[in-house]
Amino acid sequence: MTRRVRARWCGALLLTVVVAAGASGCGTEAPSPPGQPSSPAPATTGQASPPRQEPSGQEVLVEVVVTGGFAGVRNRLVVHEDGGWTLDSRAKEPRDGRMTPDGVARLRAALEDPAYDRVPAEPTGEPVRDGFRYTVTHGQHRVVATDGAVPPALRRVLDALPEGGPPTSP
After folding, report:
1. Is the pTM of this model over 0.70?
2. 3-state DSSP assignment of residue 53
3. What pLDDT score does 25 carry?
4. How high is the mean pLDDT of the chain?
């Protein structure tokens, strides 16, 4: 009798674990049809797709995606050529605003600095535990960096972003 009870409990526990793993977000993408890749491989060449046109019709000056941190953030900041910006976050409603002309000029100067063109496309140092990962795309140039390994030229770009820097709060 105890073996049957134990088997039922083990079966119920296994079922609970499987259901919880599925509900936790593991495998959130829909399966691909047979013969097709499940998802495209991430680009690691430092080249990005051509500048996107946002719904507003404004050309994008820079896009910054911040992921990671202790709270597991995923924030996307898009700054347009005219200084208008939009911030999307998993945890909050989207926000938008407008940079001052001096702020846009400072950001543009940091992005056009020849030193920024020499920033490695991928992180070069050891990542910091619970640190952030910054993906910055300007035109055809895409740079990924992590806390503890942000080159000075990229730091100038991040510091020139609206609201005092990259969006790291959840």
Report:
1. no
2. strand
3. 40
4. 73
- pLDDT at position 39 is 37
Angle at 44 between CA 30 and CA 148, to 5 degrees: 105
Q: Provide DSSP, 82-151.
A: TSEEEEEESSS--EEEE--HHHHHHHHHHHH-HHHHTS-SS--SPPPTT-EEEEEEETTEEEEEETT---
Q: Is the pLDDT of residue 154 over 50?
A: yes
Interacting residues of 25 by C-beta distance below 8 A, sequence separation 6+: none
Phi and psi at residue 11, in whole multiples of 5°? -65, -45
Encoding tokens for residue 72? 């597991």
Nearest to 127 by CA among 144, 148, 143: 148
Helices (H), 24-100: none
pLDDT tens digits, one per residue of 104-149: 999 999 999 999 999 988 887 777 788 889 999 999 899 999 888 8
Q: Locate tokens 């499940």: which residue? A: 38
Identify any residues that bridge with 96 across adjacent strands, giving them in sequence order: 86
Which of 98, 8, 24 is CA-nearest to residue 61? 98
CA distance 92 to 94: 6
**25 torsion bin: left (phi>0), alpha (psi -120 to 50), beta (else):** left
